[in-house]
Design goal:
This protein has one helix at about 10-25, and strands spanning about 40, 60-70, 70-75, 85, 95, 100-105, 110-115, 115-125, 130-140. It is mostly beta strands and about 140 residues long.
Length: about 140
Amino acid sequence: MNPWPPLRVRGPMRSSLLLWLVLALTACGEQPDAATGVVVPVPTQEPQFPVGDVACPGALLEGTLVDHPEAGLAVQGDPLFAPYVVVWPHGWVAADVDGERLLLDGSGRTVARVGMTISAGGGFYPPNDAFHPCGEITFGAAR
């Protein structure tokens, strides 16, 4: 059972999202071809973290950023196990640009690419037990 309902963006909103992506990537030095820049929906948090302003949970997620068929992006830890779905901070989005999947923060800045390492504190929450990072998210070189 897929816990992530398909996101369908149609009409003026689709054009607006693609225009926003192109403008955001252009503003941060990337030069995507409008024909190849495609927004990839990823699960994101509400503006407030799921447990409120109390504290950041103590779990540590480390691994490699990978494509995920339902969630857009995930983190692969031990290759013997399925990748972890991540509910990214509010406003983050993924995009396919020139055959490469990128992760952009809320300002449209590219923060990571598939293949890069990630380390983040946070916790796993229902209803889908996905990882919700909080605090600093660190990305490193590709493995």
